[in-house]
Predict the structure.
Amino acid sequence: MRNSKIKLFFLYTFGICALLFTLLVLMIVQDTYQSVPDYSELREIRHHQASIVLAADGRQLGSYFTQNRTRIGIDDISSDFIDALIAVEDVRFHNHNGIDFRALARVSIKTILLRQDAGGGSTLTQQLVKNLYPRTGNGKLGLITDKLREMLTAVRLEKLYNKDEILELYLNTVSFGEETFGIETASHRFFNKPSLQLEPEEAALLAGLLRAPGYYNPNRHPERAENRRNTVIRQMEKYNFITPDQAEKYTDKPLHINYLKISTHEGMAPHFREHIRQELERLLNETPAANGKFYNLQTDGLIIQTTIDPAIQSAAEKALKKQVHALQDRFDAAYDRELLVDNHPFIRRAWQSSPHYRNLTELGKSDQEIEQIFHQPQSMTLFTWDGEVEKEISPHDSLKHYLTYLHAGMIALSPHTGEVKAWAGGIDHKYFQYDHVKSQRQSGSAFKPVVYAAALESGRKPCDYQRNLLNQYRAYEDWTPRNVREEYGGYYSLQAALSGSINTIAVDLLMDTGIDKIREKASKMGIDSNIPAEPSIALGTANVSLLELTQAYGVFASGGYRTKPYYIEAIYSSDGTLLYEFDNPNRSNQRERVLSEESAGGMIAMLSKAVDEGTGSQLRSQYGIEYALAGKTGTTQHYSDGWFIGITPDLVFGTWTGAWNPGIRFPNEMGYASQTALPIAGEFLVNISDNAAQESFASQFHDYQNSHNFSLICEDYRDDTFRDRVRDFITGRDNVEPRIVGSEDEDRGFRNRIRNFFGRN
């Protein structure tokens, strides 16, 4: 009797447990079934797709993305890759309905009974579901729920799409690591080619990468990647996708990749891409496309066609990095002590303007806490010219490290069409995102051609002579502009004064022409920054950008027309449909003449002399540039900034060098622009002058660029005349004593000298 009760108890208990388990299973199934996407949702599957930026020749410069993905059709994917994928991931792909029960049984037996790693057993369709709907569950129960949901969703997908469509969906969503999604993006990342052009061994490598993208990354772990590639090739042989002879041939090949990482920071023209990103997002938010729709730059797979010339861009980037690296070595060697002492005001200023500092203040940290964090070492990755380094360092010391780095910017554009050919905004976009093509700094003598151009427009000629006088301008707080070599007296032709960058004559010329006329001319030539109404602007004391000043020089090369920078030609959808087309504002009937053709031609001649004989002559003597070239250097006070703006018949380009803060500068003459900015220009010209595809270089300027009636044959320098010496004697001054300008004292002094000369008191 007692045994019967015990049996009955266990029977009831078992029944209740079985019922509860059944209810639990039903609840899981019900919950899972409800979470399975319905057929209408699955019909509307749409992937986020990266928008790509193209150079003028169609080469990809970079991309904008939430997920870095380029959509592609199944017919544009290598058949070798598809064979490799099926061989290693889902050999019965064409025979199942989304669930491979044989694979499931194999995995269950090996994993549960034999405790062996047998893989996941998921079909490609299930993997597609996992890509589209990432797993959300935790623990073993969550994993079971997710697996069940993936199976049910896979079956639904198989009912909606044929096998090729499922493969296409999968190959556009699968991750290859490094924020790289889809076969087309992966093919460009690891082999720098479209996926349709993949060789069989390359296809096998990418197919093998999918099992563990980080572990088998060929750029980081080439030996692992090669072993995995060979495993895939043997699987292809096993399932008769290739012959044994082919398998031997492919496995014998050494691993070879052509790694091309193009991201926000890497790739060509990153500062340019960031510049146009801001313009593109504003456009897309405010203006509908030709089809009336609005698009998202990060997700809609747009194709942005730009004017960047890869050859010129590459030449600019290489020249900039090479020369600034060499310049940095000289800069560091010029100091026998630390340039910045601890807690220098520059360091404090940089810290207080940093995002890190702002975040701390927004979190309510006290000044004492922020100060402690400022000096607390932490693990950081630092930029150096020898590569990134890991270091325990405080924010204070990291800023001290970065503030002593020199920077540079370079831009090149067509003076005829305005097309921007190159835009290099800095030495490394990852660590220095500030764009020095757009940053404003004093331009030094590089501004002088604007003054001379306005003077030519006012009737002056290149062979007019101007006396080299040391003047003190009483109306401007007794400002006294001086020449670099402190040499005064005599007369210089205007072309020689520009070529030799004589400061006193540039200021005299500005005062004779009129400050307001110079400011107006600068504005019309493309300098939109504020130009103060002061005589010092003749020496480049106004803050302008490299983009503005290069555009202004473009007026000389265009025959007197203002040419506005133009860099985005069109925007297309991912299928090639034209969405936005941009008119070039520099068409012949739209350009504004801001300088006569004669004055523009005269400036080309004068700036050619500056390269042939003046401050830019190093381009001829050291860099061997023989073709037609004009240009001007510019060095600011205390060697803070170096500039060179150059002109060839079909290209105008500019470069700037300096530190983050003008107070950080060369301690001596090594800071002249001829030693800082000009070598970048020289290296740039050397890099591209031998490129047969470039037509920007010719032995002579175009006829319209030489179209002037100015006489250029004259002496550079003439001594003071007898009349000058008599006048100097009577006025009581010599060449090293400033002449006071704009004061009654000058006239009074002259009268007193006359009285003394005749012995009258």
The longest strand covers residues 651-659. Residues 528 and 548 are 7 Å apart (CA to CA). The two ends are 153 Å apart (CA to CA).
